[in-house]
Amino acid sequence: MKWLAILAGAVALLAAPYYLDLFQIGLVTRGLVWAVVGLSVWFLLRILALPSFGHAAFFGVGAYAAGLAVTRWEVDNVFVALAIAVLLTCAVALPIALVASRLGSIGFLLITLAFAEMLRSLALRWRSVGGSDGLVGVTRPDAGPLPIDLADPLAFFYFTIGVTALCLLVLRLVQRSALGGILVGIRESESRMRALGYRVGAYKVFAFELSAAVAAVAGVLHAYLIRFVSPEDLGALVSARGLIIVVIAGAALAAPVVVAVVLTFGEDLASSRTENWLALMGLVYVAVALLGDLVSTRPRGWIGRRAATDEGATPAPDAGTDASPSCGAVALAAVPVQEGP
Questions:
Q1: Cβ 227 vs Cβ 139: under 8 Å
Q2: What is the pLDDT of residues 159-181, one digit of tens each?
Q3: What is the secondary structure of 197-264 as a DSSP string?
Q4: Omega before 315 cis (within 30°)?
Q5: 12 in helix, strand or coil?
Q6: What is the largest CA-CA distance in the chain?
Q7: Residue stretches of the chain with pLDDT short of 50
Q8: Integer Cα distance of 168 and 124 in angstroms
Q9: CA distance 13 to 167
Q10: Residue 25 CB burial class (10 angstroms; 0-12, 13-18, ≥19)
Q11: How far apart, in whole angstroms, are the C-alpha atoms of residue 328 and residue 341?
């Protein structure tokens, strides 16, 4: 039944140009970008029970690297740009990974938030990358050897589907592998895994780097989708959105894709009906956060149909037995506040 639902969703996504207009295709593409962000947060939160509030840093570094690749570094191939962005992001993430791997959930959350805000402050003041004005003039590079033109919205839509599917596949393979089992063991009992001879810190650094790489891919897609990079790509709201997607999605790996697309359409619908759409979406996020203790620490989540054990991992510890902040509490702290009238 699960595979039938996935197949139906994939067919509906691939056939979207036949029943959606170009504007709606753009919304689906944007939703897929946010789905990749959600997947990067999902990996740390569901596999290692580490809530990150700093994935905006990796999303933003990936976006800036993609923008600079085509505007300053004369890169004209999207795969080369992706490789540069991922490598640069992993290099930037390594110091924070080495520090954060030694911390518990609360310390991990705070250090990732501080790191993201530090990079955002740097981007605002660094004139070489546009400063507060952002990086303009971003174009979509060539997709060779693929015979497509990414300047075409439909071609970019299908390219984004392919990249999202690849991210899903990589995370699924890691989750189902022996490495995924080790990471789950670390989540359940670090001291026991150390006693068994595993280098816990090294495994946590690897998981952090993989998660950062996936977030960087999302940043690249976002930069080429809107053809602009802003310091706000490093802002806390990016991290908050990723967490909220995961809170709603539950433990099912593919669920963040559905949630991200639905939220994107919901935000567009709300913004077209009222000027106070941020307040309206804020209420939705508050509702998610208040119910987070009921759904986010349990395998089913809101739309996840299968237990985490069915996905190759054991359920995360219940919030009542751990001092870590719940996903709902983290999401509540990041509810967007409308500025101005």
A1: yes
A2: 999 999 999 999 999 999 999 99
A3: T--HHHHHHHHHHHHHHHHHHHHHHHHHHHT-B-GGGGSHHHHHHHHHHHHHHTT-TTHHHHHHHHHH
A4: no
A5: helix
A6: 58
A7: 295-341
A8: 33
A9: 16
A10: middle
A11: 28
* DSSP output for 17-80: GGTS-HHHHHHHHHHHHHHHHHHHHHIIIIIH----S-HHHHHHHHHHHHHHHHHTS---BHHH
Structure tokens, 122: 């740097």
Q: Which residue has the tokens 């897609």?
A: 221
Specify whether the backbone of 146 is left (phi greater than 0), alpha (psi in -120 to 50) or beta: beta
Token pair, residue 244, equals: 């909220």
In 3D space, the residue among 118, 18, 44 whose CA is nearest the CA of residue 327 turns out to be 44
Query: Two tokens at 269?
Result: 């619908």
User: Tokens representing 289?
Assistant: 């956060």
For each of the domains in the chain, give its residue range(s) and CATH number, in order of start: 22-333 (1.10.3470)
pLDDT tens, position by position, 117-168: 999 999 999 888 888 899 998 999 999 888 999 999 999 999 999 999 999 9
d(CA 207, CA 105): 15
| Phi, then psi, of 135 in degrees rounded to 5 | -105, 115
